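Feature request disguised as a bug: please show the residue count (167) next to Dihydrofolate reductase in the output. Example input:
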Amino acid sequence: MLIAIWAQDKNGLIGKNDRLPWHLPNDLRFFREKTVNNTLVMGRKTFEGMGGRPLPNRQTIVLTKNTAYQNDQVLVMHSVEEVIAHSKKTETITYIAGGSAVYEAFLPHCDELYRTVIDHSFEGDTYFPAVDWNEWQLVQQIAGTMDEKNQYPHVFETFKNNKDRAE
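Example output, currently without the count:
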């Protein structure tokens, strides 16, 4: 199963200089709860923007066109097809975790989407790619709790793909 997971501001912004433009502990907790003991796929820039280390208790796949790229702590793959073939062989869920080009490449293959929408505008340089929302059904929407550490209104949304998944 392939699931894209991301947080965005109300304008679809997802990044600034290969990092998140906000700090929202509720979303970080949501991301951890969903992805722990599963597989994460991200592009090289996203991986390096997180410090170049895999997150604990997750298998990390770094997707890159750079065939010379090596990192002994992660699996390095060079195509969407290679990642999909790997995901079919594993018993874990494969989460697509960015950046924008990686999301765009995997959206046609995703079974579900987990989107956190932050009701605030931030400055940045990376946006989530266009989505044909007619292909997706919103199945869950949960308002996030605001407090001194989570200062922006936010909602966690789950979408399921409407298309027949005869892959």
